[in-house]
Amino acid sequence: MQQSTRIHSFCGLIGLAVSPLVPARAQVPTWSVSAKPITAIGSVEGGAGQELANVSGAHRLADGRVVVANGKPLELRIYSARGALLAHFGRKGSGPGEFNGRLDLLPAAGDSVLVFDQGNDRTTLFNTDGRIVREWPTSAAGSPVGQAVLFRQSFARAVVPPLTGCLHAALAALPPVAVPAFREVMPDGAGHYLVRVDGAANWIAYSSAGSAVGTFRLPPRFELYEIGKNYVVGKALLEDDIEQVQVLAIGVPAASPVREACAGRIDSFPDVSSPRATEFRAALRAALTAGEMAFSNYARYVTSIDSLPGLKEKLPAGSAFRGWRASQGGWAAAIYDRRSTLVCAFALNTARMTGWPDGRIKCSE
Fold first, then answer.
1. Which residue has the higher pLDDT, 67 or 11?
2. CATH fold label, 1-256
3. Beta-strand (E) ranges in 250-354?
4. pLDDT digits (tens, 9 = 90+) for 269-288
5. SS3 sequence, 70-125?
6. How far apart are CA 125 and CA 327, in angstroms?
7. Rounded Cα distance, 124 and 95, in Å
8. Domain locations in the chain?
């Protein structure tokens, strides 16, 4: 499969230990967001396939059909552009084409989709007729999902290698920052990079040169899954927490041409030495110990700080813990400083944490 043909459709979630310098509203045009969805999927009385539960992802195909990763029952569903159920495939289990945990859904070449099944710890490439094209255990060489890239205190998950250089260039061109915070970045496939402070409804669009070109606001209780050239896909929570997958139109001006490939380099963690870094290293050693304790309870590594015994109490004041993908074989985590650019990280036997220290605790700033 030629990954580079669709690299700009992959949505990388980037958490930065800094916050964006938000331009004045008067200087940035507001992009429109449709109040009525182009496509709406999900209701209690909507007929076959319209009741959704624990949706974890959705992707809009080129012809307007929508692929939905549903949690209960655990399956992939294909809907028409009008929201009618066309097909469903997969079920709970560990066999080929079966699922056993939360599903991460990403687009691939043509109308195929990549599905990372956290329970079975594998990635599967499906055609939209439900046929399996290929499967990869997460630890296998060439597995297309599961990369985590560190760049300038920025964390990107589920990113294919050709895209990393594009993200580096975009992040390097963003405005200067002042107050540390967590923020997300998504490429829209049209040459824009959309940025927001974590949890905020407002997004700011930047060109690849780093200039702000637009801003838009998504509805409340709307979880974003994908940004396209003139639409967004996400899950809205309606009254009584009914889940509905929606495609909303956004009014976007013409963007700069999209490059099909970007050159880039992964940070090499130039190590630092300071009292604060010593504190962070001690906290990560505590995280490794807590991870082994959790492994004895769950028979797999975990990333949630609430599942890592005693770790919260050992975190230095003013720091934040971020756990990354975990499996039976390993896991990775980082601690970053909310008051500076210091970040410390480790990766323990985990698959393709590109540029991350393997089995060692390293710090950079």
1. 67
2. Neuraminidase (2.120.10)
3. 319-323, 331-337, 343-348
4. 556 788 999 999 999 999 98
5. ECCCCEEEEECCCCCEEEEECCECCCCCCECCCEEEEECCCCCEEEEECCCCEEEE
6. 20
7. 12
8. 1-256, 275-364
